[in-house]
């Protein structure tokens, strides 16, 4: 009996690997082209794109058009709050955090100095008073903030008045909270 020769089937796995490699290279090329196709026309940062445009001769058949200038758009309505005599703002946070009543204030005007005085009022009487400096920000200001121990306050509804003063200007920002 003659020996049968075994066929080497390694060529099938090598062919499969080669086809897989070709597909991967084609996919990478397509992804690269799709990603950078739109970016080829975009100038790099700091580089101006120059486009040469050939002048087109106009025919004198149409009458000259009058150029109408648009009205200037004002970005914000109302007056500049920095020019007013009264300081305004909002209590941005008023709540209990741990064992403290926390109050945070945003002032509408830019102030380089000044004071914030907090008065906590219950039934018409001031039950707590403290002061904090004004801190300037980019275009507004804020009070340094108040952390009032709850053991210095009584329960019930109270009104929080924050008197803001800077130079000869002042204002009161108020809000109520139930303790």
Brief descriptors of the model:
179 residues, alpha+beta, 36% strand, elongated
Secondary-structure map with pairings?
Layout: H1 10-37, E1 89-97, E2 100-107, E3 115-122, E4 125-136, E5 141-143, E6 146-149, E7 157-166, E8 169-178
Antiparallel strand pairs: 1-2, 2-5, 2-6, 3-4, 3-7, 4-5, 7-8
Commentary on this structure:
This protein is an alpha+beta fold. The chain has one helix spanning 10-37; strands at residues 89-97, 100-107, 115-122, 125-136, 141-143, 146-149, 157-166, 169-178. Strands 1, 2, 3, 4, 5, 6, 7 and 8 form an eight-stranded antiparallel beta sheet that branches. A hairpin with a 2-residue loop joins strand 7 and strand 8. 12% of the residues are buried.
Q: Return the structural class.
A: alpha+beta
Termini Cα gap: 104 Å
Helix-residue proportion? 10-25%
Largest sheet: 8 strands, antiparallel
Return the average pLDDT rounded to an integer.
Answer: 80
Record field, number of beta strands: 8
Estimate the strand proportion. Answer: 35-45%
Rg result: 37 Å
Query: Spans of 5+ residues with little confidence (pLDDT < 50)?
Result: none
State the helix count: 1
What order do the SSEs take from the amino end to the carboxyl end, as H and E?
HEEEEEEEE
Broad shape: elongated
In short:
The chain is an alpha+beta fold. It has one helix at 10-37, and strands at 89-97, 100-107, 115-122, 125-136, 141-143, 146-149, 157-166, 169-178. The protein is 16% helix and 36% strand.
């Amino acid at each position: 009996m003659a020996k049968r020769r075994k066929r080497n089937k390694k060529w099938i796995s090598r062919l499969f690997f080669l086809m897989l490699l070709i597909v991967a290279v084609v996919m990478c090329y397509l992804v690269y082209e799709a990603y950078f196709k739109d970016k080829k026309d975009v100038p790099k940062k700091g580089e101006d794109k120059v486009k040469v445009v050939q002048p087109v001769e106009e025919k004198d058949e149409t009458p000259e058009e009058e150029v109408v200038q648009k009205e200037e758009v004002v970005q914000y309505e109302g007056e500049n709050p920095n020019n007013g005599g009264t300081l305004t703002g909002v209590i941005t946070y008023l709540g209990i955090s741990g064992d403290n009543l926390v109050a945070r204030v945003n002032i509408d005007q830019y102030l380089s100095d000044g004071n914030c005085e907090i008065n906590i009022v219950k039934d018409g009487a001031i039950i707590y008073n403290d002061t904090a400096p004004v801190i300037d920000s980019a275009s507004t200001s804020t009070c340094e903030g108040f952390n009032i121990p709850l053991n210095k306050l009584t329960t019930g509804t109270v009104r929080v008045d924050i008197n803001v003063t800077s130079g000869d200007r002042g204002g009161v920002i108020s809000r109520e909270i139930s303790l």
